[in-house]
Description:
The protein is α/β, with parallel strands linked by helices. The chain is 34% helix and 27% strand. Strands 2-1-3-4-9-8-7-5-6 form a nine-stranded mixed β-sheet, sandwiched between helices. Helix 2 (64-78) crosses helix 3 and helix 5 packs across helix 7.
Amino acid sequence: MKPVAVFRHSTNEGPGHIALFLTQHAIPWQMFHIDQGDAVPANAGDFSGLVFMGGVMSVNDDSPWIAEELALIRDAIAKDIPVLGHCLGGQLMSKALGGVVTKNPVKEFGWGEVSVADNETAKQWFGDIERFDSFHWHGETFSLPPDAVHLLSNQHCANQAWAMGKHLAMQCHVEMTAHMIEDWCKAGAETLAANSDGPGVQSAETMQAQMHDKLPSLNKVAEQLYRHWIHGIAPRAS
């Protein structure tokens, strides 16, 4: 089986729960450390799937690797290779396929409930889940590209996820681990302080106090989504 390619864009925004999930399901995966200068592969056909993680940058920046990842995503879609995006990763997918990424009405940092859309595609991805507490860390948002189906929303961000066949793009972070939350709170202390009066912003103390109750449920949501996503790579096993 060809490996799943996982793209890291910032040092502390690694694969999190998706790495554990792939390993537990005996699916080989290969990390590309874009933040350390790894080259973006040119051929999506070398992989059974592509997973794009978050990052502190904007997809509208002019970094060369952004254009290269956009091209790789389009190549994967054309070759029917499943793509999965988390936050920045979802924004990359949206921009690659004709959507736009703009400033969100408010910044979201911390835990917040999201609602699952009432459509058949959402039921395929989420099963019986109607709402859940997800983790958020973003100031921008994506529009849905043509042919995408809306999956998630909340009071601060209308487009929290969309799907297109076997491809899934998310604005929210379902991949979180306790270590990642602690690390982000530490690294983002100045950002949290500067936005502390925002309606979508929690304090680092609140985020970490709530994670012990909320993370197990979020992990289950992630596994539900990841299980559905890997169905798309199963036919590529050899």
